[in-house]
Amino acid sequence: MAGEVVLLDFWSSMFAMRVRLALAEKGIKYESKEQDLSNKSPLLLEMNPINKQVPVLIHNGKPVCESLIIVQYIDEVWNDKSPLLPSDPYQRAQARFWADFVDKKVSVAAKNVWSTKGEEQEAGKKEFLETLKIMEGELGDKPYFGGETFGYVDLSLITFYSWFHAYEVLGNINIEAECPKIIAWAKRCMQKEAVAKTLPDQKKVYEFVVQLRKMFVSE
Amino acid sequence: MAEEVLVFGTWSSPYGRRVEMALKLKGIEYKYIEEDLTNKSPSLLKYNPVHKKIPVLVHNGKPVAESLVILEYIDETWKNHPIFPKDPYERANARFWAKFIDEKCLPAIRKACWGEDQKEREKAAEELSKLLQFLENELEGKRYFGGGTIGLLDIAANMIGYWLGVFEEASGASELLTREKFPKLFNWANEFVSVSAIKESLPPRDKHVAFMRKRFGMVNTSK
C-alpha cells in the first residue's frame, strides 16, 4: 500500500492543493516536486503527455492524472483511515456530482474573474457568485458538504478559498457579503490542521495572480 | 418494495444511451422517458434543477445526474456483470480516459464534422487523429477497453464506437476513424456495436443520420 509517492506539484494550483490535502488527511508521506510550468520538465511531459499539467501523482512509478481522479485513487488505495467519499452509493454519487460541479462551473467562472476584463469579467463575476450560491444551497445547515465531517466535496472546493482574496481585489467583489455561508464554511475548514497547513497564504496567491493576469489581460 | 428505475434521455444523445447500455448489460428493468429539450418537463427540472440536462437516472425516487456519475452509481448498486475494474489504478485509468473522451474527443469530433470552414474542420480532424491514437494505444492487447468484456470505458466511448460514424455520414466528413489509420479502434467499434445490450441501445441509424443532417447540414461536399 505504501511504496513511493511523488507529487508533481505547483504551490498555487488549487488542483494540486486538492491532492496535497488528500495526502495530508490520510497522513501519507510523499515527495513534492515543484514544477516550472513555463518550462515543463521531461518528467512532467512523460508522466502527463496528454494534458502536460499538474498535479500528477506518481505511485510506485505509475502516474495518475487529474486532481479529482487522483483524490479518488488515494481514497481507494489508502482506505483504512479518514475516508473522503461516503460509503453509501447514492451519497457517493451526490459527492461526485458536486465535485464535478465545482470543476465544470465554479472553477471556470472563477478563472474569468481574474483573467478577463470589461463585460467578460462582469459576466464571470456574476456567474462565479451564482455558482457559490448554488453550493450554499447544497451545504444547507450542515457543517460540511460531507455532513458532520470534512469530505470529498469540501476538499474539491476549499482549495479555491486560497484564491478568494485575489478574486475579491481583481474582481472588485465581496464574497462574504454575497455568500456568507460559504465563508463561514471555509473558515470552519481552515480550523482543520491539514487544511490550514496545505493552503498557501491568500496574499501570496494574490501577488502571484496579479502577475499571471498580465499574461491574459492588457490593461 | 418493488424497485423503480427511471431514465430521462433523448433518443439521439450518446450520454443518455450510456445509461441505458449499462442498465441493459446488467439486466435491470427501467422506464425510459423521452425528453423534449426545447420544452423540458417539470419532472426533469425537478430531478436535475442544477443543470436541467439529460440523462438523469431516478432510482426509487432519488435522482442521479451526469452520465459518468450515473455509470459508477449503477455499478455500485447492481453488482452483477461489473463494468468497473476493482484495482484502484485501473479504475483511475478508466476514469481518466472517460474524461478525455468527453472533454477532448467530443469537441474535436463536432468541429471536424461541422466546423465553420474547411480549414477549421481539417485542423480539428488532425487534432482528433492525435486523440484517437491515444485510445488506439489503450486497446493494445485488449478486445475491449474493459479487457475481455465490455466495461465502463467502452460505454463512455460509445460516441467513438457509433456516433462518430453517424456524424461522418451526416456531415459528409471524410472518414475520421478508418481501419488503415486505427485498426484496433476500428475493430473495437465493430465488436462494441455487436454486443446485444449495446445494439439494443443504439438510435435507429437512418433516422439518426437524417436528423443530424437536417440539424447541422452537410458541410463537407468536396472530396
Task: Write a compact overview of the structure shown.
Chain A: Its main location: cytoplasm. Chain A: One of its GO terms (cellular component) is cytosol. The complex is a heterodimer of chains A (219) and B (223). By secondary structure, chain A is an alpha+beta fold.
Overview of the molecule:
The complex is a heterodimer of chains A (219) and B (223). Chain A is α+β, with helices and mostly antiparallel strands. Helix content of chain A is 58%, strand content 8%. Chain A is built from eleven helices and four strands, in the order βαβαββααααααααα. In chain A, α4 runs antiparallel to α5 and α4 runs parallel beside α6 (152-158). In chain B, strands 2-1-3-4 form a four-stranded mixed sheet, covered by helices on one side. Chain B has 223 residues and is an alpha+beta fold. Helix content of chain B is 56%, strand content 8%. Chain B contains ten helices and four strands; from the N terminus they run βαβαββαααααααα.
Strand order of the largest sheet of chain A: 2-1-3-4
| Number of H- or I-type helical stretches of chain B | 10
What is the helix content of chain B? 55-70%
The rough form of chain A would be described as globular
Give the low-confidence spans of chain A.
none
Distance between the termini of chain A: 51 Å
Estimate percent helicity of chain A.
55-70%
The residue ranges of chain B in which pLDDT falls below 50 over 5 or more consecutive positions are none
Q: Total number of β-strand segments of chain B?
A: 4
Q: What is the typical, i.e. mean, pLDDT of chain B? A: 94
Biggest protein-protein contact in the assembly: A-B, 22 and 22 residues
Major β-sheet strand ordering of chain B: 2-1-3-4
Structural class of chain B: alpha+beta
Beta-strand fraction estimate of chain B: 5-15%
Rg over C-alpha atoms of chain B, rounded to the nearest angstrom: 18 Å
Q: Whole-Å distance between the termini of chain B?
A: 59 Å
Assembly state of the chains shown? heterodimer
Structural class of chain A: alpha+beta
What shape does the CA trace of chain B take? Answer: globular
Element-by-element helix/strand order of chain A = EHEHEEHHHHHHHHH
